[in-house]
Design goal:
Elements: E1 7-14, E2 25-30, E3 33-39, H1 53-56, E4 69-72, H2 75-79, E5 99-102, E6 117-124, H3 129-139, H4 148-159, H5 162-174, H6 178-185, H7 191-198, H8 213-227, H9 235-247, H10 250-259, H11 262-271, H12 276-296
Parallel strand pairs: 3-5, 4-6
Antiparallel strand pairs: 1-2, 1-6, 2-3, 4-5
Helix pairs in contact: 4-5, 4-7, 5-6, 6-9, 9-10, 9-12, 10-12
């Protein structure tokens, strides 16, 4: 245990009993003594995730990195007339003993209710609500979850799935969004699959790539040349290309992109068609049919 005027390091052992999906009390080892404490939630605490409850039982707890859990004394909240509630949503009367308010951070806010044992907990003695708020605000300034491309990368290395590996590599190296990278390979991934794979859970339904990395990059190169670098990350072009490939084939469409006149694309852009994908498909189909007529003549 570490202690000073502002914090006390404790080890907390969560009760196993659940009520309404959340633990009502925890057992805290403070200065070598086990104490029952109540977690008091304020209106300023982060909402706990409700859509991932089915994954909790599948989490490999040994794989979770250790974190510092921050709690503070409730006095500043009660002095400001701010209501605290327990994990069941019941109001905690002011001056109730052994109440602590969570100082939520991105990596700990949900684990007060999910970890069986909370280690390295610090209890802070903030003198005002402003001091509490500033501590949370400065700590969370640059906190965030993984973005879509980063999540693909973690899922790919946690699962060694080749589909995720190649889509992540394309998105990262060519600096395009996840959904656009998927479209260049002609597949769609599900967020639920990405989450499970990142947890090391096997998923059988992950689709195989419809194109090789070389083919995907060739299409990207063509889009950059025909539509411009700024358009590479937008989905309308590759969606239209995929629709045209469905009508013909990959080689036919790639050849058309390499040969289509710049004036045709310029007129397409100037038309400001409201159905960008449909209009582009029409232009590509028209040009491919023109090429075929020339070849047949």
């Amino acid at each position: 245990m570490k202690s000073n005027s502002n914090s006390t390091t404790v080890n907390i052992n969560i009760n196993n009993q659940l009520k309404k999906g959340m633990k009502k009390t925890v057992k805290a080892v403070i200065d070598g003594t086990v104490k029952d404490i109540i977690i008091g939630h304020s209106p300023y605490n982060m909402e706990r995730p409700k859509d991932k409850s089915d994954l909790l039982s599948a989490i490999d707890r040994k794989s979770q990195l250790k974190v510092i859990f921050h709690l503070c004394f409730p006095r500043p909240f009660w002095d400001e007339g701010i209501t605290l509630v327990d994990s069941d949503g019941e109001v905690i009367p002011p001056n109730t003993p052994n109440v602590y308010v969570p100082c939520d951070t991105a990596d700990t806010y949900y684990r007060f209710e999910t970890d069986e044992v909370l280690e390295d907990v610090e209890i802070h003695n903030f003198s005002t609500i402003q001091e509490y708020g500033k501590a949370i605000g400065t700590t969370m300034l640059f906190s965030r979850k993984l973005n879509n491309v980063e999540a693909l990368g973690i899922a790919s290395i946690a699962s060694k799935n080749p589909t995720y590996k190649e889509i992540h590599a394309l998105a990262r190296t060519r600096e395009i969004p996840m959904n656009t990278a998927m479209a260049f390979f002609g597949v769609r991934l599900k967020q639920t699959h990405t989450t499970k794979l990142a947890l090391g859970i096997a998923v059988e339904e992950v689709p195989n790539l419809k194109r090789t990395p070389e083919q995907a990059n060739s299409l990207l190169d063509a889009v950059e040349v025909v539509f411009g670098k700024k358009e590479m990350g937008k989905r309308y072009a590759i969606n239209a290309i995929n629709a045209t490939i469905t009508k013909y084939d990959y080689e036919t469409v790639l050849t058309a992109l390499e040969l289509i006149p710049a004036s045709t694309i310029s007129l397409y852009k100037m038309s400001e068609c409201h159905e960008k994908e449909s209009c582009l498909v029409a232009e590509l189909v028209s040009f491919i049919e023109e090429l075929r007529k020339r070849k047949a003549a």
